[in-house]
Amino acid sequence: SQQGEEDPQALSIQEGENATMNCSYKTSINNLQWYRQNSGRGLVHLILIRSNEREKHSGRLRVTLDTSKKSSSLLITASRAADTASYFCATSPDTGGFKTIFGAGTRLFVKA
Amino acid sequence: NAGVTQTPKFQVLKTGQSMTLQCAQDMNHNSMYWYRQDPGMGLRLIYYSASEGTTDKGEVPNGYNVSRLNKREFSLRLESAAPSQTSVYFCASSEQPGTGGGYTFGSGTRLTVV
């Protein structure tokens, strides 16, 4: 089964509102990454947070990581129609190696 | 533009036909990956190459083979295509996991097997 599970599966908000997506995982990780995918395109890396970090910011993005709960959240503030996309979390295991595992994604729709 | 280039972008195959998906990166990354994306299932790792000269199986390797031709190129081959291999295939590269850069993805190959 997938390591990362995003919640909700789909989210619809108005432009200007904040969007929060959550990711839960099952085993210990080295880092957790968030990606965006626009329809019909490849994934674009947004932000990486390491297991010893609790919060990270990048522009309008804020990511938190709670390793005790094995969960992460992605907050997009002041959303725009251009933020409409699918968002995926991906986890890299702390055992090393290269098998980063992706969740099924959250589909975000921002209405103008 | 720097990045990961995949060819072809679209392909229709008949059951039993073979084909090779090509991938090249120009970022001097050590590691390269092939994923498939199916509706509602996220991305699943098919094969990866940690560095030039090495390849390893991922989560769903059956029915596929790979070749790390050199540091830039990593190809995926379907020897005898099956309808279950209908999917969108993504190639990605990374310097190494955990270095802060994440993965860079190509734009994908949409494959239909009839």
How do the strands and helices of this protein lay out in sequence?
The complex is a heterodimer of chains A (112) and B (114).
Chain A lengths: L4 E3 L2 E5 L4 E6 L4 E9 L5 E8 L4 E4 L2 E6 L4 E6 L8 E9 L7 E2 L3 E6 L1
Parallel strand pairs in A: 2-11
Antiparallel strand pairs in A: 1-3, 3-8, 4-5, 4-9, 6-7, 7-8, 9-10, 9-11
Chain B lengths: L3 E4 L2 E4 L5 E7 L5 E7 L5 E7 L6 E2 L6 E5 L5 E5 L8 E8 L9 E2 L3 E5 L1
Parallel strand pairs in B: 2-11
Antiparallel strand pairs in B: 1-3, 3-8, 4-5, 4-9, 5-6, 7-8, 9-10, 9-11
Give an overview of the whole structure.
The complex is a heterodimer of chains A (112) and B (114). Chain A is mainly beta and 112 residues long. Helix content of chain A is 0%, strand content 57%. Chain A has no helices and eleven strands. In chain A, the strands form two sheets. In chain A, strands 2, 4, 5, 9, 10 and 11 form a six-stranded mixed β-sheet that branches. Chain A has a five-stranded antiparallel β-sheet with strand order 1-3-8-7-6, with no helix packed on it. Helix content of chain B is 0%, strand content 49%. Chain B is globular. The termini of chain B are far apart. The chains are: A mainly beta (112), B mainly beta (114). The A-B interface holds A 2, 4, 30-31, 33, 35, 40-45, 48, 50, 88, 90, 92, 97-105 and B 4, 31, 33, 35, 40-45, 48, 50, 56, 58-59, 90, 92, 97-98, 100-108.
In short:
The complex is a heterodimer of chains A (112) and B (114). Chain A has 112 residues and is mainly beta. Chain A has strands at residues 5-7, 10-14, 19-24, 29-37, 43-50, 55-58, 61-66, 71-76, 85-93, 101-102, 106-111.
Shape of chain B: globular
Structural class of the secondary elements of chain A?
Answer: mainly beta
- Low-confidence regions of chain A: none
Helix segment tally of chain A: 0
User: pLDDT below 50 for ≥5 consecutive residues: which ranges of chain B?
Assistant: none
Terminal residue distance of chain B: 34 Å
Average pLDDT, all residues of chain A? 91
Q: Biggest interface between protein chains, with counts per chain?
A: A-B, 26 and 28 residues
Largest beta-sheet details of chain A: 6 strands, mixed
Order of helices and strands of chain B: EEEEEEEEEEE
Biggest sheet details of chain B: 7 strands, mixed
